[in-house]
Automatic annotation (TrEMBL), chains A, B:
Domain HTH hxlR-type: 20-125
UniProt-listed Pfam families: HxlR
SUPFAM superfamilies with a match to the protein in the record: Winged helix' DNA-binding domain
Protein name according to UniProt: HxlR family transcriptional regulator
Native species: Hoeflea marina
Keyword field contains Transcription: yes
Keyword annotations from UniProtKB, A to Z: DNA-binding, Transcription, Transcription regulation
Top-level taxon of the source organism: Bacteria
One MF term in the entry's GO annotations: DNA binding
Region called Disordered, residue ranges: 1-24
The keyword Transcription regulation appears for this protein: yes
Length: 133, 133
DNA sequence: CAGCATCCGCTACGATACTG
DNA sequence: CAGTATCGTAGCGGATGCTG
């Protein structure tokens, strides 16, 4: 068992705000927490493109991610019902990931987010450039 | 100067992935990083509702946030051109926050996110309930 | 190939106390 | 009222090595 990592659920990051407790807002915040995590969005963007993707395909598609993080984020997304995993009973093993039905419904939202991001004023895009590779 | 906190810019969480370097993807990732942070979305939702809001109004609206975090997140949002700050030269001081024009353009995206969040299957909403207050 | 296990640095976040 | 300063901590995320 890992010490801290891994299977913790943290809606909108670790301890949730007791924000409008009991109301709809609270649960919406919880649900949005599903998207938290450094690589979740990137992974989702990747899966939107190509229906089914193998673990190694995702690794190649996102060179900067470590194996640990890739698995961890995928597992959390799976646990939260956004992506699903297909294990092919073969040797060597083949595992494929894809979006669940609910996960696919994210598309419009992410599209809008992209549109917004691309509408960023030049000054802001400039300011956001982080030097050093 | 604070040790680590505060004025760090961390697109999509601290060190960005050298994901599709040079392409548009990279800068989109950077821009989306603007929304990162535990309270950013909550604050933005709050500001969508009521045009101008005072610091203390935000505090009251989001009881679980600490002063430090509220300021920090507001400052970052301000720096990134999403919210703006109006300081009224009065005693006692009055400061009001509101969305910039670009910030307002986030509305469709956040709307879609809400729609998605509310479309969560009951099983998932159930699973997301975190016990203990 | 897909994945766990483990050690570890770093930092985002929280709680508390103080100020103009 | 609207902040700043400081300290302590959880746990995210990286690197490396091992397994079926």
């Amino acid at each position: 068992m890992t010490r801290t990592d891994e299977n913790v659920r943290y809606p909108l990051r670790s301890k949730r705000p007791d924000y409008a407790p009991g109301s709809g807002a609270r649960s919406v915040q919880n649900v949005l927490g599903v998207l938290e995590g450094r690589w979740k969005l990137i992974i989702l963007f990747e899966l939107f493109g190509g229906r089914l993707k193998r673990f190694s395909e995702l690794e190649r598609a996102i060179p900067a991610i470590s194996q640990k993080m890739l698995i961890q984020q995928l597992r959390q997304l799976e646990r939260d019902g956004v992506v699903a995993r297909i294990v092919h009973p073969e040797v060597p093993p083949r595992v494929e990931y894809h979006l669940t039905e609910w996960g696919q419904r994210l598309c419009p939202a992410l599209d809008q987010l992209l549109i917004w991001a691309e509408s960023a004023p030049d000054e802001i895009r400039q300011a956001l450039i982080v030097p050093e590779g």
